[in-house]
Design brief:
Pfam families: RuvC. The protein has five helices and five strands. By secondary structure, it is an alpha/beta fold. The protein has a single domain, classed as Nucleotidyltransferase, domain 5, CATH 3.30.420. The longest helix is centred in the last third of the chain and has 32 residues.
Length: about 180
């Protein structure tokens, strides 16, 4: 399964593609960061991100996209920019008919490191180790994007089965909690 991980941000948007699945070696396909100048108009920045994410989606044709779920921060401007960048990635994937999964930072940290309280250094170390990289991905946004993709590889299949069970139950007129 090919997964694109997106660590959204207006100034730096991390992107990482990994390939793997149950019983398979997980490997790095590509990692990078889209950057937009802080001095530019927000509409121009979002459009640049949409073009960049679209290029990655068209180049790699992932099976799924994993995006970091925005969480409350003290700086409202940062939250808004992160949410807007995340929405651009979600819409770009949806336009191509790709499934999108949202994960909180603590879910991602727990998935790759075993602790939802891991710091950036620990996450980067574990991403490097899980992907067999000799050099850690830089900057942290790139490592976080790879961590999102790895999280989806480990959690995505179970979430898909739960979603299918809920849909089947709803079609049969039952409710699953």
């Amino acid at each position: 399964m090919l997964v694109l991980g997106v660590d959204p941000g207006l100034t730096r948007c991390g992107l990482g593609v990994v390939d793997g699945g149950p019983g398979q070696q997980t490997s790095l396909v590509e990692v990078g960061v889209l950057r937009t100048p802080a001095a530019d108009d927000v509409a121009a920045r979002l459009w640049a991100l949409e073009r960049g994410v679209g290029e990655w989606l068209d180049r790699h044709h992932p099976d799924a996209v994993a995006v970091e779920r925005v969480f409350s921060q003290a700086n409202v401007r940062t939250v808004m920019g992160t949410a807007q960048a995340g929405a651009v990635a979600i819409v770009s994937a949806a336009r191509r008919g790709l499934p999108v999964a949202l994960y909180t930072p603590s879910e991602v940290k727990a998935s790759v490191s075993g602790s939802g309280r891991a710091d950036k250094t620990q996450v980067t170390f574990m991403v490097s180790r899980l992907l067999g990289l000799s050099d850690p991905p830089r900057p942290a946004d790139a490592a976080d994007a790879l961590a999102l993709a790895l999280c989806h590889l480990s959690r995505g299949p179970a979430l898909a089965r739960m979603r299918a069970a809920r849909q089947a139950a709803a079609a049969a007129g039952r409710s699953l909690r």
